[in-house]
Amino acid sequence: xxxxxxxxxxxxxxxxxxxxxxxxxxxxxxxxxxxxxxxxxxxxxxxxxxxxxxxxxxxxxxxxxxxxxxxxxxxxxxxxxxxxxxxxxxxxxxxxxxxxxxxxxxxxxxxxxxxxxxxxxxxxxxxxxxxxxxxxxxxxxxxxxxxxxxxxxxxxxxxxxxxxxxxxxxxxxxxxxxxxxxxxxxxxxxxxxxxxxxxxxxxxxxxxxxxxxxxxxxxxxxxxxxxxxxxxxxxxxxxxxxxxxxxxxxxxxxxxxxxxxxxxxxxxxxxxxxxxxxxxxx
Length: 282
Ligand code: 13P
Fold this sequence. Notes:
Layout: H1 6-15, E1 19-23, H2 27-40, E2 44-49, H3 50-56, H4 59-72, E3 79-86, H5 89-98, E4 102-105, H6 112-128, E5 132-137, H7 154-163, E6 168-171, H8 188-198, E7 202-204, H9 212-220, E8 223-228, H10 230-246, H11 253-258, H12 261-275
Helix pairs in contact: 2-4, 2-12, 5-6, 7-8, 10-12
The structure holds 1,3-dihydroxyacetonephosphate.
The site of 1,3-dihydroxyacetonephosphate has 14 residues, from β3, β8 and α10.
């Protein structure tokens, strides 16, 4: 069943664990993620970027693929279909109209006033459709791999939250998407003070490559949703590379793509345990 993320994130926030948000790239990834989370009895957020939506074929293709898999696989865990880093009002509305149950508006490259205005317009539309809204502040997505860590401004964050009615917030605490250059410099003090001040579930982007200690500290400091993309891509690509090297004559796409299934499922199962989301569906 598809649902929004409101109750899931609030429960995780109160009980001190995090809901995983795994990025999907195609039908097979969606299937593997659902399979792993069903086996783990873990709620799951399927996150889709605009470029992945384009790759799938469009917003409706994504929604129908996810809904059909949920139906055919008889999935009973809560599944959220989430637009990751929506770049505009129009993109968020398209996702909501197509059937996404959660959207993120990434206005982090806008001025505070503009970010507040557009976020509020999206919230108005989203709430009328029972859809959750995540917002970002701090420019995490501006540069995939900045040479210096980016940290959100505490006063801007608290002002942003007081002027909007967002369900969750992604601050920048030195986290980056993709592979970290050197040791990640995460500011947990900032994360903890933001959590105390805003009192809404926080989201950690760019969680691939962070060690167990950092993930646990982030959850302790108030993170209730953790985004993983690169770790799954890396696990899948490594497994497929080995399979192709060992099977030079194979040409069946189902065998090639499927050779990465176990690697994705194993990676997810380790994350679900680390995030504490396993066995949270009753
Ligand atoms: P990683 O690719 O670093 O896991 O980040 C994923 C993410 O934050 C998606 O929004």
